[in-house]
Design brief:
single chain; mainly beta; Deoxyuridine 5'-Triphosphate Nucleotidohydrolase, Chain A; 9-stranded antiparallel beta sheet; 3-stranded antiparallel beta sheet; 8% helix
Protein backbone atom coordinates (compact mmCIF):
# COMPACT_ATOMS: atom_id res chain seq x y z
CA UNK A 1 0.00 0.00 0.00
CA UNK A 2 1.05 3.55 -0.70
CA UNK A 3 -0.28 6.68 1.05
CA UNK A 4 -1.68 9.21 -1.42
CA UNK A 5 -0.13 12.69 -1.15
CA UNK A 6 -2.14 15.88 -1.60
CA UNK A 7 -1.56 16.21 -5.36
CA UNK A 8 -2.72 12.62 -6.04
CA UNK A 9 -5.83 13.16 -3.91
CA UNK A 10 -6.65 16.21 -6.02
CA UNK A 11 -5.84 14.34 -9.25
CA UNK A 12 -8.18 11.46 -8.34
CA UNK A 13 -10.91 13.96 -7.49
CA UNK A 14 -10.40 15.74 -10.82
CA UNK A 15 -10.65 12.50 -12.82
CA UNK A 16 -13.75 11.50 -10.82
CA UNK A 17 -12.36 8.27 -9.36
CA UNK A 18 -12.38 9.70 -5.80
CA UNK A 19 -15.18 11.78 -4.36
CA UNK A 20 -15.13 14.13 -1.38
CA UNK A 21 -18.39 16.07 -1.42
CA UNK A 22 -18.25 19.34 0.53
CA UNK A 23 -14.48 19.40 -0.12
CA UNK A 24 -12.73 22.27 1.69
CA UNK A 25 -9.24 23.31 0.55
CA UNK A 26 -8.23 24.11 4.16
CA UNK A 27 -8.81 20.46 5.11
CA UNK A 28 -6.31 19.06 2.60
CA UNK A 29 -3.09 17.98 4.34
CA UNK A 30 0.22 16.83 2.82
CA UNK A 31 -0.84 13.19 3.19
CA UNK A 32 -4.59 13.20 3.74
CA UNK A 33 -7.75 15.15 4.31
CA UNK A 34 -9.23 16.40 7.60
CA UNK A 35 -12.91 15.46 7.96
CA UNK A 36 -15.20 18.01 9.63
CA UNK A 37 -18.07 17.56 12.08
CA UNK A 38 -21.60 17.86 10.66
CA UNK A 39 -23.42 16.63 13.74
CA UNK A 40 -22.81 15.19 17.20
CA UNK A 41 -24.97 12.64 19.02
CA UNK A 42 -24.35 12.86 22.76
CA UNK A 43 -24.65 10.11 25.35
CA UNK A 44 -28.34 10.97 25.86
CA UNK A 45 -29.12 10.56 22.16
CA UNK A 46 -29.50 14.30 21.48
CA UNK A 47 -28.27 15.28 18.00
CA UNK A 48 -26.77 18.74 17.49
CA UNK A 49 -26.10 20.24 14.06
CA UNK A 50 -24.95 23.75 14.95
CA UNK A 51 -23.11 25.68 17.64
CA UNK A 52 -20.93 23.69 19.96
CA UNK A 53 -21.59 20.64 22.09
CA UNK A 54 -20.22 20.30 25.61
CA UNK A 55 -19.09 16.72 26.20
CA UNK A 56 -19.02 15.87 29.92
CA UNK A 57 -16.07 13.96 31.40
CA UNK A 58 -16.36 10.18 31.04
CA UNK A 59 -18.93 10.47 28.26
CA UNK A 60 -19.22 8.67 24.92
CA UNK A 61 -20.42 10.57 21.83
CA UNK A 62 -20.69 10.09 18.07
CA UNK A 63 -19.75 12.40 15.23
CA UNK A 64 -20.92 12.42 11.62
CA UNK A 65 -18.81 14.03 8.93
CA UNK A 66 -19.71 17.01 6.77
CA UNK A 67 -18.02 15.27 3.86
CA UNK A 68 -19.50 12.40 1.92
CA UNK A 69 -16.60 10.16 0.91
CA UNK A 70 -16.65 7.96 -2.20
CA UNK A 71 -13.65 5.64 -2.46
CA UNK A 72 -12.77 3.80 -5.67
CA UNK A 73 -12.28 0.02 -5.62
CA UNK A 74 -8.48 0.42 -5.40
CA UNK A 75 -8.28 2.89 -2.48
CA UNK A 76 -8.97 2.42 1.24
CA UNK A 77 -8.37 4.87 4.09
CA UNK A 78 -7.24 5.03 7.70
CA UNK A 79 -8.78 7.47 10.16
CA UNK A 80 -6.70 9.27 12.78
CA UNK A 81 -8.04 11.57 15.48
CA UNK A 82 -6.48 15.03 15.18
CA UNK A 83 -3.99 15.62 17.98
CA UNK A 84 -5.86 18.81 18.93
CA UNK A 85 -8.59 16.57 20.37
CA UNK A 86 -6.20 14.06 21.94
CA UNK A 87 -4.56 16.92 23.84
CA UNK A 88 -7.98 17.80 25.28
CA UNK A 89 -8.61 14.24 26.47
CA UNK A 90 -10.75 12.93 23.61
CA UNK A 91 -10.15 9.34 22.49
CA UNK A 92 -11.48 8.04 19.17
CA UNK A 93 -12.69 4.60 18.14
CA UNK A 94 -12.12 4.49 14.40
CA UNK A 95 -11.89 1.80 11.75
CA UNK A 96 -10.61 1.64 8.24
CA UNK A 97 -12.74 2.86 5.34
CA UNK A 98 -13.08 0.00 2.87
CA UNK A 99 -12.42 0.31 -0.84
CA UNK A 100 -15.71 1.08 -2.60
CA UNK A 101 -17.34 2.83 0.40
CA UNK A 102 -19.66 5.76 -0.29
CA UNK A 103 -21.30 7.88 2.42
CA UNK A 104 -20.69 10.08 5.43
CA UNK A 105 -18.74 8.57 8.30
CA UNK A 106 -19.91 7.91 11.86
CA UNK A 107 -17.08 8.11 14.39
CA UNK A 108 -17.25 7.11 18.04
CA UNK A 109 -15.34 9.10 20.65
CA UNK A 110 -14.98 9.38 24.42
CA UNK A 111 -14.06 12.25 26.73
CA UNK A 112 -11.43 10.60 28.93
CA UNK A 113 -10.48 13.87 30.63
CA UNK A 114 -11.75 15.15 33.96
CA UNK A 115 -13.12 18.29 32.32
CA UNK A 116 -15.99 19.06 29.97
CA UNK A 117 -14.79 19.55 26.36
CA UNK A 118 -16.49 21.96 23.96
CA UNK A 119 -16.66 20.62 20.40
CA UNK A 120 -17.81 23.05 17.70
CA UNK A 121 -19.89 21.77 14.79
CA UNK A 122 -17.89 22.29 11.58
CA UNK A 123 -14.52 21.77 13.28
CA UNK A 124 -11.94 19.38 11.78
CA UNK A 125 -12.09 16.16 13.84
CA UNK A 126 -10.02 13.45 12.20
CA UNK A 127 -7.63 12.93 9.33
CA UNK A 128 -8.47 10.51 6.53
CA UNK A 129 -5.24 8.98 5.14
CA UNK A 130 -5.93 7.47 1.72
CA UNK A 131 -4.01 4.36 0.68
CA UNK A 132 -3.69 2.95 -2.81
CA UNK A 133 -4.19 -0.82 -2.99
CA UNK A 134 -1.92 -2.91 -5.23
CA UNK A 135 -4.99 -3.70 -7.33
CA UNK A 136 -8.74 -3.20 -7.18
CA UNK A 137 -10.59 -5.25 -4.59
CA UNK A 138 -12.29 -8.30 -6.07
CA UNK A 139 -15.37 -7.52 -4.00
CA UNK A 140 -15.39 -3.91 -2.73
CA UNK A 141 -17.42 -2.77 0.27
CA UNK A 142 -20.62 -2.38 -1.74
CA UNK A 143 -20.41 -6.04 -2.88
CA UNK A 144 -19.62 -7.39 0.60
CA UNK A 145 -21.68 -6.32 3.60
CA UNK A 146 -22.24 -2.74 2.46
CA UNK A 147 -24.12 -2.23 5.75
CA UNK A 148 -23.39 1.49 5.92
CA UNK A 149 -23.17 2.24 2.20
CA UNK A 150 -24.90 5.55 1.48
CA UNK A 151 -25.31 6.51 5.14
CA UNK A 152 -26.02 10.13 6.02
CA UNK A 153 -25.63 11.53 9.52
CA UNK A 154 -24.81 9.64 12.72
CA UNK A 155 -25.72 6.04 11.91
CA UNK A 156 -25.53 3.47 14.72
CA UNK A 157 -27.47 0.69 12.98
CA UNK A 158 -26.91 -0.64 9.44
CA UNK A 159 -28.66 1.26 6.68
CA UNK A 160 -31.94 -0.47 5.72
CA UNK A 161 -32.25 -1.27 2.04
Amino acid sequence: MCVLPDHLILSKMEDGSLGIEEFHEGSLTPNGYDLRIAEIRDANGKISTDGEVIIPPGSMFYVSTVETVRLPDDVCAQLWLRTTWIRRGILGAFGKIDAGFNGTLTLGAFNASQNPVAIPIGERFCQMVLESLHSSATRPYSARSGNYQGQKGVTLEPVRR
